[in-house]
Amino acid sequence: MAKAATEYSDYDISDDSLGRINRSKIDKPLICFCVLNFFLNAAVSVIAPFYPPLAKDKAHVSVSTIGYIFGLNPIGAFFFSLVMGKKMSQWGRRRCMLIGLVIQSAVVVAFGLLDFMTHNKELFITVSLVTRFLQGASRAAYSSISFAYIPILWPDSIQKKISILETLTGLGLMSGPFIGAALDALFGYQMIFYTLGGIFFIALIPTAIFLPEDDHSLNKKQTLNSKRVIRNRQIWSLGLLLTMMSAGTTFINPIFSIHMKCYNMEEDVASLLLGWLTISYIICINIVPKLLQCIDKKIILTFGLFCSCLGDLIIAPLGIFPNKWFMTMIGLPFIGIANAFCVLPAIPQYIDYLNQIFNNDQSLRLPISDLSSGLFISFYSLGTFVGPVIGGIVYDAFLVDQSNEAQMTSFQRSSYTMAGLQAIMSILFIFGGDVYAPGYKRVRQGENIGISLEEEDEYEGSNKIGVQMFSSTQPNVSHDESS
Fold first, then answer.
1. Most buried among 30, 431, 447, 449, using CB within 10 Å?
2. Residue 468: exposed, middle, or buried by beta-carbon count in 10 A (0-12, 13-18, 19+)?
3. Residues 295, 301, 303, 309: what is their CA dihedral angle, to the nearest 10 degrees?
4. pTM for the complete prediction?
5. Is residue 232 classed as helix, strand or coil in its secondary structure?
6. Each residue of 38-84: pLDDT tens digit?
7. What domains sit in the chain, N to C, each tagged with a CATH number?
8. pLDDT tens-digit readout, 281-334
9. 154 CB contacts (<8 Å, ≥6 apart)?
10. Is 437 helix (H, G, I), strand (E, B) or coil?
């Protein structure tokens, strides 16, 4: 373990310090990442049942504008994740995390102050846009770096740690509306955000204590050639698949509570129903690793997007289904399952693609890990912008009046549009992502990944992340040190 960790890490971590981590009963860095991932995602989802009615009924903001406001969070995450994937090792991972938490704390508190601005529509919209953008950027800083730390701190259990962080991510998204409902009932709208802001500020202490110190000599190390990555169709195919996956999940954000009112369902009940999506995601995220041992990652990714397409058609619902509220409850788990099928294989699949581009250059293990994390966060974040924007625009375009029938029709058209886009992207990924191509060649490097050569032979043809992380396909181009 100590040898592997030192080999993967760009930090000067001594064997003694690693020994202290291993002998400890509590993995403090992992606990820190899990708790913060939980609350960061809770802060994102907490506004789903509360903000749209506040903006629409009190500030008189249109549904399409609410969609843009929801979308600014992932736009900030999209751009900043790309930057972090390239520069985090040079700027310092821990430093970027601390700055991200300070910004996150400030903007979450600012979001609670919107309750005082409903009388001024322009001010309300401006503050909403700025806070959502900065919230996304700061969240991207923390999320990208937390995933990039996994091969550094836990090189022998990469897949397990990704599953743990994703489980806490799902729990945070699911618990956000519950936390918001409880705080709103006890103290009012503002205390939701003041509480979360305080948690992020306090989290600065364990983050500064438990994570390794930044190595300021990293800017002298090799970096990836960005042009090769940008020109690669596999990178873009997987990125667009992740974009449409998250878009199919988040397009309902600005219109869900409004739609459920057509069934005479209150906001609090609607927020509970949204939790059903996340429950299915959490259950499935712990099943997917077993499937990855016998099914190709690219097939699982494709199936996941098709499953999301089906879920969007069910919640519409299609004409063959009754137009009742329980169809939404049936469709949401399909979307949650689809997320698990797309999220867990994404980072290791990016690592495979990047290793192919850079010819399995062993000196680029850490930069490839950083960039894979950044690409995953950025493209998934882009989808959480595209989804609410498309959902809001299509909803407004088909809304002829405020009757329940007209609102249900608008929601149905939004669902149909998203399902169609996902079906198209699934087909494109089959060809652009080389889903049909033969399996990757295995590189006999069992001693570098914590397994024996006999064990590697046993998993021949599988997609176990620990085996395939630094494998490559046929030789491509040689490494270029210029960025």
1. 449
2. buried
3. 170
4. 0.71
5. coil
6. 888 888 778 767 788 888 888 888 877 887 787 687 788 888 777 77
7. 24-468 (1.20.1250.20)
8. 888 888 888 888 888 889 999 999 999 999 999 988 877 777 788 888 888 899
9. 5, 30, 160, 161
10. coil
